[in-house]
Amino acid sequence: MTRLAIVLTDGFADWEVAQLTASARSYFGFDVVIATPEGEEVRSMGGMRVAADAVAENLHASAFDGLVLCGGTIWETEKAPDLKPVIGDFTTHGKLVAGICGATLALARAGVLDATDHTSNAADFIASAPGYAGHALYKDSPQAVRAGKLVTAPGSAPMTFAAEIYRALGHGGDELDQYVLMFGAEHQPKAA
Question: What cellular component GO annotations does this protein have (predicted)?
């Protein structure tokens, strides 16, 4: 069974992993583990309270197939959790690592964006991360960008973020393409 650790922080963006968590658990049968800083209950931007299954700082790659960091308000502040050791453990072990919106700042601080294609909310947004050296590999894309087992996305791309995570885990194909089209249908031009 595929096992994903999803990190949520206080002020997480409700929409950014909603398609992923719901379909991973109910459709693909993944074991989805919600981890938070220090294992504390967190509240989303919209006020939804979430209790943790695990402590984010204690996650180990040996127990999971992937690590997904949800964006939110905290990543741009000094209160952002230091997940560099966790991110390093997952990348060292060749596991999926994914970040959307503000969570791409955590990936930048961990150095995983310095040598591979990636995206974020904007080039100047990601450039604000201390130590970031991946300017030349930044892709200005409205969709998620996948480079091997690394997936990044702007906060406005939760559907392609979920899709690229599935593809990185080997769950691509026609069925996934149809799923993306179905949930992204509202973004298609109206027929004349």
Answer: cytoplasm
Q: Where are the beta strands (DSSP E) in the chain?
A: 3-7, 31-36, 42-43, 49-50, 54-55, 66-69, 96-100, 145-147, 150-153
Q: Are 82 and 111 in contact (CB under 8 A)?
A: no
With beta carbons less than 8 A apart as the criterion, state whether 69 and 107 touch.
Answer: yes
Residue-by-residue pLDDT tens, the chain, 192 positions:
999 999 999 999 999 999 999 999 998 899 999 999 999 999 999 999 999 999 999 999 999 999 999 999 999 999 999 999 999 999 999 999 999 999 999 999 999 999 999 999 999 999 999 999 999 999 999 999 999 999 999 999 999 999 999 999 999 888 888 888 888 787 777 776
Give CATH superfamily name and number for 3-187.
Class I glutamine amidotransferase (GATase) domain (3.40.50.880)
